[in-house]
């Protein structure tokens, strides 16, 4: 349900400040998609520096993703965003995004934190590889097409 930038509904609605290739942004986007929440993805560029918008929305960690709500409030960190989406937009006909059992929810939080710690170094390595090569995005939700220089082959 990602809306095109400039769409009137997106202007007044939910926005995700993030990066199309970020696995953490993808987690937040998947939660919104599963709940059918219309949102606009605002691509964040970190070069030459982080934007004032990101620094204002997430002054503690200064990282993506950030869920920007229509009333101006912000929810940071992908796991927290998924929990917020699950509680703020419950779907009567769909299963909850997170387990209902308290123990299972605790295990979900444990494994989310564990994987988050493992994914960050992998993500940084991938970003370094992509910066060494030209790349472009496909229009589909998770599509990434690498265009590698012919000298490699």
Automatic annotation (TrEMBL):
<dbReference type="InterPro" id="IPR004045">
    <property type="entry name" value="Glutathione_S-Trfase_N"/>
</dbReference>
<protein>
    <recommendedName>
        <fullName>Glutathione S-transferase</fullName>
        <ecNumber>2.5.1.18</ecNumber>
    </recommendedName>
</protein>
<keyword id="KW-0963">Cytoplasm</keyword>
<dbReference type="GO" id="GO:0005829">
    <property type="term" value="C:cytosol"/>
</dbReference>
<keyword id="KW-0808">Transferase</keyword>
<dbReference type="GO" id="GO:0006749">
    <property type="term" value="P:glutathione metabolic process"/>
</dbReference>
<feature type="domain" description="GST N-terminal">
    <location>
        <begin position="12"/>
        <end position="93"/>
    </location>
</feature>
<dbReference type="GO" id="GO:0004364">
    <property type="term" value="F:glutathione transferase activity"/>
</dbReference>
<dbReference type="Pfam" id="PF13409">
    <property type="entry name" value="GST_N_2"/>
</dbReference>
<dbReference type="InterPro" id="IPR045073">
    <property type="entry name" value="Omega/Tau-like"/>
</dbReference>
<dbReference type="InterPro" id="IPR040079">
    <property type="entry name" value="Glutathione_S-Trfase"/>
</dbReference>
<comment type="function">
    <text>Is involved in the conjugation of reduced glutathione to a wide number of exogenous and endogenous hydrophobic electrophiles.</text>
</comment>
<dbReference type="InterPro" id="IPR036249">
    <property type="entry name" value="Thioredoxin-like_sf"/>
</dbReference>
<comment type="similarity">
    <text>Belongs to the GST superfamily.</text>
</comment>
């Amino acid at each position: 349900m990602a809306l095109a930038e400039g769409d009137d509904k997106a202007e007044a609605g939910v926005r995700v400040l993030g990066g199309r290739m970020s696995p953490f942004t993808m987690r937040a986007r998947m939660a919104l998609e599963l709940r059918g929440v219309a949102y606009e993805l605002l691509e964040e560029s970190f070069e030459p520096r982080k934007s004032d918008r990101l620094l204002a929305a997430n002054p503690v960690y200064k990282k993506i993703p950030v869920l920007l709500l229509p009333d101006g409030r912000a929810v940071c960190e992908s796991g927290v965003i998924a929990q917020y989406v699950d509680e703020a937009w419950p779907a009567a006909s769909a299963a909850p995004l997170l387990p209902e059992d308290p123990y299972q929810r605790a295990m979900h939080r444990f494994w989310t934190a564990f994987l988050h710690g493992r994914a960050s170094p992998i993500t940084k390595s991938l970003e370094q590889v992509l910066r060494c090569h030209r790349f472009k995005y496909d229009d589909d939700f998770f599509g990434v097409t690498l265009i590698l220089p012919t000298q490699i082959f």
